[in-house]
Amino acid sequence: MIMTLSIETLRRIPALLLLGFTVGMAYAQSPAPDLATQQSIIHELEPRIDALKSDPKQLAQMIDEGRSRTILCRTCHGKEGIAVKEMVPNLAGQNPVYIVDQFQRFGDGRRYDYLMSGLAKSFSDEDKIKIALFYSTLKPQASHDGDPALIPEGEKLFTTICSECHGKDGHGQKGYARLAGQRTDYVVKMLKEFRDRTGRRSNPWMTAVAFKLSEQQMQAVASYIANLE
Ligand code: HEC
Ligand code: HEC
Fold first, then answer.
1. Closest ligand relative to 17 C-alpha
2. Euclidean distance between CA atoms 159 and 142, whole angstroms
3. Which atom of ligand 2 is nearest to the CA of 102?
4. Best-predicted range by mean pLDDT among 1-10, 171-180, 205-214?
5. Residue ID of nearest Cα to ligand 1 atom 10
6. Residue 29: what pLDDT?
7. How far is the centre of ligand 2, averaged over its atoms, from the C-alpha of 206 (Å)?
């Protein structure tokens, strides 16, 4: 995954990490996340998912089984993966490696949400992959919420800070989240979780990024993201 990043990003990572850990030491009680674990999970998953993609019949079957395991999820994430409740993320079109990685995190406590943590523990690794494949094939839809007046400012922030990891179009890549079209309320909530190191979610890169944003800048970048297709 790292290899697909630009040289410029690679050059910046040590600085971002350093900033992340400094921020962490100054502001929080929770330990820095285990990046080695994160990388190994992603590395294991990528080839597995790629192999499945070259076997359309098995892939179709897995997607179908994934769909059948998401009946309960519809109450919040919507039948087609477009959230139907506040503060809930859209899942349609999300990168499958990212989704599985988040299930691992909910399951082992690196990310916390009362319901999601419990659910993630109840899934086998196979289930996680099937569900992730199912959501990744659904059609994403921009939420178009947020404040239109803030979009130009948001665009500037996005292109200078976020696009390097989340992609120019916000579609993400492999382990990185797709952001395009995501709900404003959810994006702002996540930025604050990272910034404040509440322990519900942690990632040194995102903490370093979010720490630099004002409240208005968070609203602006989220408004821009909400309108990306
Ligand atoms: C009662 C509402 C609810 C239900 C039901 C629910 N979720 Fe969630 N889900 C959430 C919320 C809220 C979050 C964001 C948690 C946070 O604040 O970190 C979330 C986060 C996620 C994420 C992380 C997405 C991201 O962009 O990081 C995934 C993946 C996910 N849910 C999958 C599922 C699946 C699969 C099911 C069904 C088996 C399910 N959820 C059922 C409310 C729900
Ligand atoms: C150095 C790389 C990097 C940069 C730059 C970056 N991000 Fe991230 N972002 C990540 C990673 C990695 C994750 C996954 C975090 C985790 O481990 O859960 C993430 C996760 C997120 C999430 C949570 C997505 C979800 O579905 O729950 C949001 C929202 C987000 N980033 C917004 C932004 C915004 C807005 C910017 C620019 C202001 C930005 N990011 C810049 C690497 C980056």
1. 2
2. 18
3. 18
4. 205-214
5. 88
6. 35
7. 5
Name the residue with the closest Cα to ligand 2, atom 39.
162
Spacing, Cα 205 to ligand 2 middle (Å): 8
Ligand 1 atom showing the smallest separation from residue 75 Cα: 5
| Predicted pLDDT of residue 112 | 96
Residue 179 and residue 172 in contact, taking contact as beta carbons nearer than 8 Å: yes
Give Cα separations from 218 to 72, 162, 200, 202, 222 (angstroms): 31, 12, 19, 17, 6
**pLDDT at residue 175, rounded to an integer:** 75
Average pLDDT, the chain: 85
Judge if the beta carbon of residue 73 lies within 6 A of ligand 1.
yes
Q: From CA 44, how far away is CA 145, in angstroms rounded? A: 36
d(CA 219, CA 154): 8
For residue 15 and ligand 1, the question of a CB distance below 6 A is answered with no
For residue 99 and ligand 1, the question of a CB distance below 6 A is answered with: yes
Q: Which residue has the tokens 């998953």?
A: 45
The predicted-structure confidence for 63-119, as pLDDT tens digits, reads as follows 999 999 999 999 999 999 999 999 999 999 999 999 999 998 999 999 999 999 999
Rounded CA-CA distance 140/178 in Å is 10
Q: Give nearest CA residue, ligand 1 atom 27.
A: 102
C-alpha to C-alpha distance for 122 and 73, rounded to whole angstroms: 13
